[in-house]
Amino acid sequence: MLDKEKVDEYYIDLYKKLMYTENDLENLKRTKEKTDEIADNLDLFINKVHETLEFLKNNKESWYIEGEDIYIENNEIADKYNNLVSELNKIIKEKFIITKYDISNNI
Has residue 3 been placed in a domain? Predict the structure, then answer.
């Protein structure tokens, strides 16, 4: 990186011109936008996982685990849990599953 206080503006402009083409700058912009989108999606997912775990913690008397299955003894709590799991699956499907189309457009 250049120290702007110690280098003449002419050399800073020359450096930028030689180091970054318009295509490079556009690619960097798209990469930053995609990174921000991924970070936002991860926040959304983590918050929903946290909400689900808090729900289970707050209703720990109403469910138990047997093997790899969770059993919920109250229909109202089961419905709420199933809705939370559905919301998690929707986030995964809409925000994290990459299709062939997505990959080919980013090359």
Answer: no
Number of domains the chain is built from: 1
Tens of pLDDT, residue by residue over 66-97, are 999 999 999 999 999 999 999 999 999 999 87
Domain holding 69, by residue range, is: 9-105
For the chain, how many residues are written? 107
For residue 14, being part of any structural domain is answered with yes
CA distance 92 to 26: 28
pTM over 0.70: no
* CA nearest to 92, candidates 33, 31, 32, 46: 46
* 75 vs 71: CA distance, rounded Å: 11
- Among 92, 93, 98, smallest CA distance to 34 is for 98
